[in-house]
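Following up on my earlier thread - several people asked me to post the actual chain instead of describing it. Fair enough. Here it is, all 272 residues.
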Amino acid sequence: MVGITFSITIVAMVLASSQYASRVLRHFMRDRQNQVVLGMFSGIFVYCIVVLRTIRGPGEASFVPALAVFVTVLLALVAIGLLIFFLHHIAVSIQAAHLIAAAAAETHAVIDQLFSTELDPDEDDGPPGREGEEDTRVWVAVPSRRTGYIQGVEREALVALARAHGTIVRMEHAVGEFVIEACPLVSVAGRPPDPALARKLNAAFSLGRERSMAEDVGFGLRQLVDVALKALSPGINDSTTAIHCVDALGAILSHLAPRRVAEHARTRASAD
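Reply from S.P.:
Thanks for posting it. Predicted structure:
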């Protein structure tokens, strides 16, 4: 059963990767029901191996633990039920509508977390700053110490560092963008920062090999766009899946439209 279950999982992942996009595989890996079933099967297998070591063959020292054998049979019946449940669950999980709905629901949750404040209809939410005024400050770039995608930023830490050193810190890349080592990560107004400050500024950014949904709403949109483009490719030609993606994108944008987006400039008051 363990072999069958893992084989089904691998086949479903290969099918989803070729039919939709490789980025949707993260939903299979994070699916709690898949994790529970695979964990249960692995645990039952390990239990059976442990019980098998206590069973001795015929002879004077023969021993068969009756209670352990009863529990093993009971667990085998549970495993059969889990296998039936897993077959149904995996058949539903690889459907396009389910994957699209999962990606959209995760994006909605990130929007609620990052942009919890709704806009006032009578308030002008235009971009801050003074248009037409030239920035005469001298900016010194702070290079990145690593290469990868920006997965998160400790904005409060950046504000605290700027206040402690009496300067202005400007982010050169947004969350979700790719940064190359030794390329500008942030810029500091005025004199060049000392090595300790540059190290602390780099520590405020979390970089990884791939984008994450933790603070990146755009990654959720990217997943849906990738599925839609794959569906419209000549090899797939599935217009219905593309329509599902467009509907989900419209729902996400409608959910995001009345929310207050993060400030362009942050001070201690806005960070608090």
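The two ends are 53 Å apart (CA to CA). That should answer part of your original question.
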